[in-house]
Amino acid sequence: MKMTSMIETFVMHFGEMGSRWGFNRTVGQMYALLVITKEPISANQIAEALSISRGNVSMGLKELQSWQLIQLHHKPADRKDYFQTNGSIWDMANRVFEERRKREMDPTLSLLRDILLDTPANEQEQHAQNKLKEVHDLLEGITKWSSELQRLSPEKLDTLMKLGSGVGRVLDMKDKLLKRTNE
């Protein structure tokens, strides 16, 4: 499988982004290739396109399957496994966020909850606990907000994103109105 210059540019960049999203560069490249390929492709085709070993492809496919980002396909009279993305781009974004929440946010929130249950031994620990409560409350708020966003349909999410800075202006207006009524 030969990639065009445009496709190669996207695949390589997506690999770099994948490393920031929680999986390694090669896995990101593999996923990008699967995203932009119309038909399911085999592990050998992935290895050839990305110039990586078949073993590396196999490990990457397992990781993408564990994230539920790809699905396995079989073709009649062909013993090879073929792969393609599992769902839409919105589905992918939700899965990546959910996995990152499980791997990063949940353990941090759990640790913070445990620390906040402890009785501070001195003033320094009390100050630290107050700051940790702020961190906890922020992460808890982000988690709840993102869970609400994940429940929205792609169409509603798209509308919400298009509102963009308009939401900020509405909130500023609300603050000004509240300030006037309190004067």
From TrEMBL:
Organism, scientific name: Paraglaciecola psychrophila 170
Superkingdom of origin organism: Bacteria
Record-annotated HTH marR-type domain positions: 22-80
InterPro entries: ArsR-like_HTH (IPR011991), HTH-GbsR_regulator (IPR052362), HTH_MarR-typ (IPR000835), MJ1563 (IPR026282), WH-like_DNA-bd_sf (IPR036388), WH_DNA-bd_sf (IPR036390)
Protein's recorded name: HTH-type transcriptional regulator
SUPFAM superfamilies: Winged helix' DNA-binding domain
Family classification: Belongs to the GbsR family.
Keyword field: DNA-binding, Transcription, Transcription regulation
GO molecular function: DNA binding; DNA-binding transcription factor activity
